[in-house]
């Protein structure tokens, strides 16, 4: 997992062949103007824009998730979001087996760590990062860049 600001995104280009494409899109787009929905940026890079109410910690534990086929770059556009995190290797209780079609798996475990993300910051979740997003109050406008692993 990585937490940083979009102004520092260039330092992460080398981590994956599509990170440069993803971060150049993020830094070259008026994120506040994006409509809710899905945007295909390039082969292996898509953006999911949402504007949903934050949830209480207890409500997010049923969505303690990880992915096998995609890396998530989650960016807060407006609002204040708290996220939970735990290494996948330390999770023991599967709530829902992996769905290849939807690329997610859910755990019953609880996060080890909670952290806050605000406007202009991003978090990169790799497949080994189990995360509980959307903890907060009020509307949280955010986007999730799905970067395919292959």
UniProtKB/TrEMBL annotation:
<dbReference type="InterPro" id="IPR004375">
    <property type="entry name" value="NanQ/TabA/YiaL"/>
</dbReference>
<protein>
    <submittedName>
        <fullName>YhcH/YjgK/YiaL family protein</fullName>
    </submittedName>
</protein>
<dbReference type="InterPro" id="IPR037012">
    <property type="entry name" value="NanQ/TabA/YiaL_sf"/>
</dbReference>
<dbReference type="Pfam" id="PF04074">
    <property type="entry name" value="DUF386"/>
</dbReference>
